[in-house]
Amino acid sequence: MNNTLTIIGLGAGDFSQLQMGVYKKLMATEKLFVRTVDHPVLDELANEGLQFESFDAIYEKHHTFQPVYEEIAQRLIEATKIGDVMYAVPGHPLVAEQTVQLLIEAADEGKVKVVIEGGQSFLDPIFGALKIDPIEGFQLLDGTSFSMHDINMRQHILIAQVYDTFSASEVKLTLMEKYHDEYPVTVVTAAGSSQEKLVTVPLYELDQSVEVNNLTTVYVPPVTSQEEALRDWTTFRQIIATLRGPNGCPWDREQTHESLKKYLLEEAHEYLAAVDAEDDFAMIEELGDVLLQVFLHAQIGEDQGYFTLEDVLASVSEKMIRRHPHVFGDVSVEDADGVVVNWEAIKAEEKGMSDKSLLEEEYRASSALQTAYNYQKKAAKVGFDWPDVEGAWDKFAEEWQEFRQEVAKGSNGTRLDEFGDVLFTLVNLARFYKLSPEEAMLHANEKFARRFGYVEAKVKASGQPFSNYTLEQLDAFWDEAKQLEKE
Question: Phi-psi bin for 131: left (phi > 0), alpha (psi -120 to 50), beta?
Fold first, then answer.
């Protein structure tokens, strides 16, 4: 492999800005390929007699850019088998040039010998046109492939590869997932050349009122306030840190892990109610409240020096990867049941369950119902369970009869004990029918509160106290509430 592929940059401007060293190397080459003829320098070079072959025809063969880049790289590798080759690209070879990256990978694999020469990237004239200092922090993103997760809203953002209206539309839609519709963006065309043009428009007009071409770069300035970055995780974290800080909220500063326990439960229950109501807007709000509790606990951990939000993220991310080898590894599973079996096996290995009681980590101080459900579910996994639901029904009938007997002739202590057995068997029935007893109880409480609220409203509207109503009259109001729900 003696032949060499030399990659050189045509710069970001017109012929007058072309570096002298690059010009001499271009004019001296015997075999020149260019990625595209759509560059102002090439017209002048052609007039001076420079001959070259472009890959523009390859763009017309494919619907996406990746196969275009791959075919160009392969064609160049094949060409070096005949002789030395020079490949010219817009700007600098190492800035926003996917074909060059593919060729570097091929060189690392020993498929081609690559030499990279100079060329001015479009970044220098862009910085000059926008009058920004990159030391403040900037991102260079590919308009054909970036996502909202790539965006750092607090830095200068330059989006290259915005060729036409369609690509501008895709960029706009991605940005609108983070920025508000009116956020100002600047479209920079032919920066540093005599045709340089800057147009600032509201984000929603990016693909409507501005002409774009292969010399276009979209600039998004850093946000200047929290209100402009409400969809950004960093903003929320800063808000929580401020609330817990020296000049923050006295209530938030006083909270501890212990004092917040009840709020986490309340917010989780309210979210479940929103799910039951199939109310998307309520789910957004209630999930936010749950997230607030998570961030508060993480901030308390950071304030006390025990752990940070990054520790929480690292722990759960590592666990998800470890417990999903069928997704992130080479393990195969056939269905959801196989996933559960694999998950439990991994958990057992992680926690050394053979040396511990199966029920040790299933207790929940916040909910006796959930604890019962957890105990039964864990025992069932090792075979301590009825073969079918009929056994659970028989056990319920047995415990219910024993409770009735204690009601008739037992003490408060025996009645309490037998009633607990009744509830335990009801939880077991719920498990067989794949129902959450905790969620069922939450639903029942919410339903009771809603219907009793109707009864209260009827009594209040009458101007009379509850004591003036018989149970039958109050029950009639209750039935009205039920009927209204059905309607």
Answer: left
